[in-house]
Amino acid sequence: MEQSPLYIRVHPNDNVAIVVNDGGLGEGAVFSDGLVLRERVPQGHKVALRDLSEGDPVVRYNVVIGYAQKALPKGSWVNEHVTRMPTPPSLDALPIATIKPPAMPPLDGYTFDGYRNADGSAGTRNILAITTTVQCVADVVQHAVTRIKTELLPKYPNVDDVVSLGHTYGCGVAIDAPDAMVPIRTVRNISLNPNFGGEVMMVSLGCEKLQPERLMPPGTIPIASPQDAAADPNGDVVVLQDESHVGFQSMIESIMTMAEGHLARLDRRRREPCPVSDLVVGVQCGGSDAFSGLTANPAVGFATDLLVRAGATVMFSEVTEVRDGVGQLTGRAATPAVAEAIIREMQWYDDYLKRGGADRSANTTPGNKKGGLSNIVEKAMGSIIKSGNAPISGVLSPGEKATQKGLIYAATPASDFICGTLQLAAGMTLHVFTTGRGTPYSLAEVPVIKVATRSDLARRWHDLMDVNAGTIATGHATIEDVGWELFRMMLDVASGRQKTCAEKLKLHNALVLFNPAPVT
Questions:
Q1: The pLDDT value given to residue 229
Q2: What is the C-alpha separation between 181 and 207, in angstroms, rounded?
Q3: Residue 296 carries which DSSP code?
Q4: What is the pLDDT of residues 284-320, one digit of tens each?
Q5: Helix, strand and coil in the chain, % to nearest 5
Q6: Residue ranges of the chain whose pLDDT lies below 70
Q7: Do 412 and 173 meet the contact criterion of CB atoms below 8 Å apart?
Q8: Three-state DSSP class for 28?
């Protein structure tokens, strides 16, 4: 049955709304309140709810997302071509820890079956990860991983996978530059992710700038037993340039021999009931559209609040996708120190973009705009909603590891791949990723739950999307309904009772390090 013309207005003060109908609506379409479209408006795009004069603010989410560049009569299509973007908010005189939301009641009675680690953390998967110190060894390690999966992994049925932590770093870089700490600590902290069980194994070329002892200084790797204390404090390392290696097969056999010891230890691990407070969840969006801030991201925000109430750690990120709402974040900071840390990260990134001759307007993609997002301001308002309503209890610089519970702002670039890599370094063990345009993005190191913003996307990509939040737009479900669905799915996926679509298809993206330091 054909759906009647339908739009969604977020806030009573908004002077634009977005068209809900699949395929959009043509000129002359009449809404239930009598609004008539003056031209065709695609799905997800904005329609003027009143006459706008040149220079008038365009308001969505009760926020000025732009200014009309020409007169836009009621019923007009409002898009990036007929609006100009506001200037970015100043980082001075921001609200500092002024928002004091009512305390959310604890959420008890929920657990997941995880893998307990010696340091007290809990993994959602049991994976052997092989760390690389430099890109030069990536293909050698991948060759070894292929053979390990084929020849060794079947002997260790309690190990979920073997992954190579390949990257494009380690040499030809200014290794002592101040910002080099970002990629170095990223690789280090990814290697220590709870999903890897504390088993650290590295492959080095030998001549690279990022030497194994620099990547993993003594004391970095947690000691699980007295026997481990007698081992190499840098973990197990295979150096390809070692004189003992004669030919390629010698290198591969060394990696496989070392890997088997790690596999044997990982295979002895078993899942056990763990409180939800042991989960470390990263939330992110990519291929966003105008529905992201109406359906998927609000549902994720509801689930985020549930996780925080249960004591878990939840990270949201993407500097340019929160920059225009910085006052919302500093106001929600649990303490003035947290607010100042948010401002520090925003300023650092402003300076980083300025050095590169770019600004925040470069963030929005052709797909974002095709999906109805006119600019980064509108995109930011929809992105922040993923964080729910809890106070922000901590801030991480890129590559740092989370050490506290609650809602954490992990500063990262907005790039899907870099953001996911940095959230892995922060200790993420489960990833929730929303998309409106569609993306096969996933990670090999943690399960990734994909949430579609639109029912049409969920229908067409039925074997790539795990949750359909599009039902919120049509009124078939509420934000709370989908939020609870997502929360329960997280526990099932974390427990290994359910695999995500990407896990079933074995889809995953490469790790991409953020390196703001010079390349020599």
A1: 44
A2: 20
A3: H
A4: 999 999 999 999 999 999 999 999 999 999 999 999 9
A5: 35, 20, 50
A6: 1-2, 223-235
A7: no
A8: coil
Q: Which two tokens stand for residue 246?
A: 């004669």
Contact 416, 441 (CB under 8 A): yes
Dihedral of CA 236/240/244/247: which sign?
Answer: positive
pLDDT of residue 103: 86
Instruction: Tell me the per-residue pLDDT of 54-77, one tens digit each, with 9 for 90 and over.
Output: 999 999 999 999 999 999 999 999
pLDDT at position 188: 98
Which residue type does 484 have?
Answer: W
Query: What is the DSSP code (8-state) at residue 400?
Result: P
The confidence score (pLDDT) of residue 485 equals 98
- Cβ–Cβ < 8 Å for 410, 423: yes
Q: At which residue do the structure tokens 């899907």 appear?
A: 416
Residue 466 CA: distances (Å) to CA of 28, 455, 502: 36, 12, 9
Write the burial class of residue 245 (CB in 10 Å: 0-12 exposed, 13-18 middle, 19+ buried): middle
Euclidean distance between the first and the last CA atom of the chain, given in angstroms as a whole number: 62
pLDDT of residue 419: 98
Neighbour tally for 335: CB within 10 Å: 14
Task: Annotate 341-396 with three-state secondary structure.
Answer: HHHHHHHHHHHHHHHCCCCHHHCCCHHHHHCCCCCHHHHHHHHHHHHCCCCEEEEE
Whole-number pLDDT of residue 100: 87
Rounded Cα–Cα distance for residues 241 and 140 (Å): 12
Asked if 57 and 78 touch (Cβ cutoff 8 Å), the reply is no
Q: How far is CA 169 from CA 209, 240, 417, in A?
A: 10, 17, 15
Backbone angles phi, psi at 315, to 5 degrees: -115, 135
DSSP bridge pairs for 432: 283, 449
DSSP string, 191-213: HT-GGGTT--EEEE-SS-SS-HH
Taking only the tens place, the pLDDT of each residue in 380-392 is: 999 999 999 999 9
Q: Are 75 and 27 spatial neighbours (Cβ–Cβ below 8 Å)?
A: no
- Sign of the C-alpha dihedral, residues 134, 139, 140, 145? positive
Q: Any residues with CB less than 8 A from the CB of 254 and at least 6 apart, and which?
A: 238, 244, 245
Q: Tell me, what's the pLDDT at 387?
A: 97
Burial class, 60, CB count within 10 angstroms (exposed 0-12 / middle 13-18 / buried 19+): buried
List the beta bridge partners of residue 272.
Answer: 114
